[in-house]
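User: quick one, fold this
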Amino acid sequence: MLSQYEDYKGEMAELRFWDMARSPEALRDWDRAVRGDEAGLAGRVPFSEGSGATACDVIDPSRCMRFTRWDDASWLAVGPVLRAP
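Assistant:
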């Protein structure tokens, strides 16, 4: 069980934000890539920078996140693979 402040430990291909509830079928397809124009897709951070401690949303590049305790060695040369949309 995770505590409220537990850090995520693992690999992430991207982070998506939706402005609507996702159906059970859509949640089962979590590993399917998105085109970027899907209904309800409000943000998408692909984690493809490869260096630095910042990752930005490709839908609205003004929205960025900064990682703490991060260095370039934390980026994966080859990350998790998403299935075609």
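User: anything notable?
Assistant: The chain is about 5% helix and 20% strand.
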